[in-house]
Structure formats: structure tokens, C-alpha cells
Protein: VTC domain protein
Amino acid sequence: MIPALQAVADAAMAARPITLCELQARAELMARIDHSYLVPVEVFADFAARLTDPHRTGGPFQALCINGRRWFGYHSVYYDTLDLRSFHDHRQGRRNRYKIRERLYEHSGERQFEIKLKGRRGETDKRRRPLLSDEATLGRGPRDFLAAVLHGTYGIAAPGELVPSLVTDYQRATFVADGRRITCDAGLVCQDAGTGRSVRADEDVVLVETKTAVTGHLTEADRLLHTYGLRAVQFTKYCGAMAALRPGLKANKWGRAVRTVFPQPAT
Structure:
């Protein structure tokens, strides 16, 4: 295992388990506030140990466990217009911005068509629709779902033409407490669906996201990460990877985070 995945695996195995049904009951958080951090492996080990400590006040964070597994493979395909409207809307901070993707949960084979929307206060609102095993990602059902979500949320029409733009693969462990969730990703590999070029994330960095439904407040995990001198960064897998894969795209506010996550050039 690469160091980042080893650190994530060790933390997940050391924590108390929680089932998927329990996670959904305690912290499904389809609408939430997200903060992203780039955490060195040596910091991550201590951070995770403190949150999952059985003697922690209020009880420990627990690790999602499905059929004995504590970390899981995620395969996603993102879709955008030919002129990368979704990417540029995020780069420019436009109010009505969204991402479209298909996500495959590799441990179960479950496929989901997902739309990630941004609210006026920066909150993430994820809508999703299950895909049948033989259903086309951009078939009539998913397209009708996309059109209904965008019209109902933003009052706008869905883009007419969408093409695959980015493919991502990584391993994730999820830690849960009441109303709070922390996702920890390692081994991220991203491929440009148009050119075939790929980039790999730094093997010594864990991508951590804190998630809560409470707006305007830092979570305990955020405050703990601050004690290590870490601050939230403006980084998403889609926008960060596209900026790394296509140097002609302007990284803007993501530049430093992109260079940290992807220190080696695309190949």
C-alpha cells in the first residue's frame, strides 16, 4: 500500500465499526457544508487516533464497515459540455453551478447518477438517482432527472450536449459521529477522458473532507485540524484534476492546492 492508503486503512481498522444503515440514520448529509484539507500522513495518523479514541468525550467517531470492509474503491466519471461549462462556472464562482457524474461503488457494484449543486451560502446539495446495471448514464431517465433537478433548483435548462470529461479512482474510509461525517481519500488517480492523460495524487497526502449540516460553524474535526497548522483549501477532485491535466485551463484560486495534490506532471 502507498503511505496515504496505509494510514487510512490503519485508522479505519482501529475504529469501532458502524453499518451503512446506521450511518445513513446518523449522518447521511445529502445537504451539507464541506471543508477540504490536504493532510500529511504523519498528521493524519494522530488526527484519526484522537477522533476515534474510545475514551473521547461524547463518544468516538466510528468507521463505516460493509461486509467486513473498512475502506472502499470509488470509480467516477464526470460529464461536462464540450467547452467545459461546469469547470468554468466553478472557476468563476458562479452562483448556479453544479457537477454531473456517474459513481460506481466498487465493493457492491452499485451505480448512481449524481448531481452536486452549490447553494447560496456555499452548501453542497447532492441529488442522485440509481442506475440499473445496463442503463446508459445519459439515457432518457437520467437526462429527465437532470432536467428536473436543474429546473427545480436553479430555474435553468439542462445542457444539451454532455460528454465524459474526467475519470477518477481512489480508496475511501468514512468516519461518523452524530450529524457529522469525515471522508478520507487516498490513492487518487485521474484520467482526462478526452486525451487519455493521467495524474496521480501525492502518495503521502490524505484528502480529508469534513461534512456537517450546521452552517456557519466549524466542526470539532475542523478545529482539531487547525491545531496542526492546517487550513481548509479550495479543492475539488474534478476541478483540481482538470487544471492539472490541462495546463491551459486557469487554476486561479486552486493553484497551490493543485500543485500540492499533484506534484508530478501529467503523463
